[in-house]
């Protein structure tokens, strides 16, 4: 069901008071938005809880126009913070809210807006996790039983209830099956859904989402049918994955349906990786239920070998009877494996790198082993190890525990020596060295001594004034200013890059 306005009002820690729209407290909140501008409606897309302090001065007419615009965007409610600009919610706000049917909540100064936002975010995460659990149950039922008409319809009914949506199935013979969730659609809305499904059947895409007015239709292709799901609010990435996964599982073999459940977990884990799904402990417990202590493998290739590596990881873990969650993209592979499997995994990947031409282009970073609740830290460790491994000669496998032993600065200089920017600065130094070698030596000593002129002069065995004169000349020749930190940094990098190239 998600988080509702009533959930907020009923939590005593927030000390909220509903001043208008008591009968509308069942509205769902999709997000929290804070605004102190005249008209925030262009930045709203529906079901937001809008928080404000009334900082913007408005006439009575402007307040009514403000609520009229919010009603058009189907905002869930308005929270008005008191004690900052006004001690009480202005009466005109309550009158406008009653006219346009929008709940108004009074928020005391002692209640931080961020606490409300965190509450909503946590509730949404819990609901999404509940949806995932229930849909995994549906997939298991489809996998473990013969997919009779009754079983399929019962599974789709559960999908409709979980998403608060109406599910429409159009079979290849043209027949329809409509399964209503909490809210049913009228005949016109159903015709709209069927039309969108027919358009989708002729496309090459597996699934798509379309907004028609306040109706959101997600269509997905199934085996022998097209699945259409319609509801009055936007779909989250998790919900889209659930629909696509159920559509794929319909009428497939038991083995394929079980594999599809794994693909759903992999797709949801990708949302965690890109920060579209909060890595709450209860979420991680579901996604990594069979891996308690884990390690992360982060790999990429200069060639097109990502899927090869992903398949190899799955095969290695499967042969050993160990669980593995692999997310493969066009450019990288992220795998979660039991930490006890790292040794065997390392040897497997090393062998694959030796046997496969494309695999020789791989760079692999491996995290340390920790509890699955530390997965975000493990992702960071694996990314750091991978980034440093990618700077060296390939193939390369680097574990995070060995990062401190790698001279990453030297590796970076070796790789950057031929970058266009440093090549240009190297050319300047080479030209200057041909004409004024002593002046360039003075510059090098100055940079090596971190700008300490007395120390640089002593290292060259010359007077400080002589050093200053040479530095003035080299500034003219190179067109730089030694008082400019950026020029000094680039000059030093160019010197280092020259040495790396000559080595």
Structure description:
The chain is of the alpha+beta class and 503 residues long. It has helices at 5-10, 60-72, 91-100, 113-144, 149-163, 187-201, 237-249, 254-273, 281-287, 306-319, 342-355, 375-391, 408-416, 420-435, 437-448, 453-460, 464-478, 485-502; strands at residues 17-20, 31-34, 48-52, 77-81, 104-107, 166-171, 176-179, 207-212, 215-222, 225-231, 293-301, 325-328, 332-338, 362-366, 370-371, 396-399. Strands 11, 12, 13, 14, 15 and 16 form a 6-stranded mixed beta sheet that branches. A 5-stranded mixed beta sheet has the order 1-5-4-3-2. A 5-stranded antiparallel beta sheet has the order 7-6-10-9-8, sandwiched between helices. A hairpin with a 2-residue loop joins β8 and β9 (215-222). α4 (113-144) packs antiparallel against α5 and α14 packs across α18. The protein is extended and about 90 Å long. 35% of the residues are buried. Mean pLDDT is 79; it is low at 252-258.
Q: Could you list some keywords that capture this structure?
A:
alpha+beta; 17% strand; 18 helices; 503 residues
Quaternary arrangement of the chains shown?
single chain
Helix segment tally:
18
Structural class: alpha+beta
Strand count, sense and closure of the main sheet?
A: 6 strands, mixed
Task: Please estimate the helix content.
Answer: 40-55%
Radius of gyration: 31 Å
Mean pLDDT reading: 79
Estimate what percentage of residues fall within beta strands: 15-25%
- Approximate shape: extended
Number of E strands: 16
Distance between the termini: 66 Å
Query: What ranges have pLDDT less than 50 throughout 5 or more consecutive residues?
Result: 252-258
